[in-house]
Design a protein that fits this description.
The chain contains 9 helices and no strands. The protein has 205 residues and is mainly α.
Length: 205
């Protein structure tokens, strides 16, 4: 592992730990409220419906759709990597939720909930974790432009979880970090078992 990757991994782990401490001690409440207030400006019914649909791109159903699309498009390795990493992130996020059992914004802050009632507690965000794991796992298969699109995808899913009223900012920060870590771990295990895979991004990506 290169020094850069070591630094990124350490920063990601620190993000999860700091987020947990902020939630447990309540020190992160002002930050969460500020983020909630910044997004508490209704954009209208059409935007609400659109964002409510976009947010599900970070669900296990969205993950299945992404993996299936890649598979149909002949990107079997990318499909497998995204499916494995996204599934691992979902499992880890769901396993962490009971450790804090945090109420969701609409349960404590009278935030508007624009989607169906989600399962489990608020911390960490499972959708953000799945989105981050998917994007991270696909990074070796993508060129610079597509990587930027993947990063935007993660940011969009994370912010959408705040907008639809089901997560706090500290939840999505932890979720993104968890997803990134899961993808890195899955990639390491996959390489240990099957060996490294050659990156072959398509032209123009």
């Amino acid at each position: 592992m290169t020094p850069y990757r070591n630094w990124v991994t350490a920063l990601t782990v620190a993000t999860v730990l700091v987020s947990r401490v902020l939630v447990k001690t309540g020190a992160g409440d002002p930050l969460d409220r500020a983020a909630r207030d910044a997004l508490a400006r209704p954009l209208g019914n059409r935007a609400d419906v659109t964002i409510g649909a976009v947010t599900d791109l970070g669900s296990v159903y969205g993950l299945g759709g992404i993996a299936a699309t890649l598979l149909v498009g002949g990107r079997r390795r990318a499909a497998l990597d995204s499916a494995l990493a996204g599934s691992a992130a979902w499992i880890v996020a769901q396993s962490l939720k009971p450790t804090l059992d945090r109420p969701r914004p609409y349960q404590v802050d009278a935030a508007a909930r624009l989607v169906s009632v989600p399962a489990g507690s608020s911390w960490p965000s499972g959708h953000s974790a799945v989105a981050a794991a998917t994007a991270t796992s696909l990074s070796p298969h993508l060129g610079p432009v597509s990587r930027s699109v993947a990063a935007a995808f993660v940011g969009t899913v994370a912010v959408s979880r705040l907008y639809v009223g089901v997560h706090h900012l500290t939840d999505v920060l932890a979720g993104v970090a968890v997803g990134h870590l899961c993808a890195r771990v899955v990639r390491g295990v996959r390489r240990a078992i099957w060996g490294p895979r050659t990156r072959r991004p398509s032209a123009g990506r």
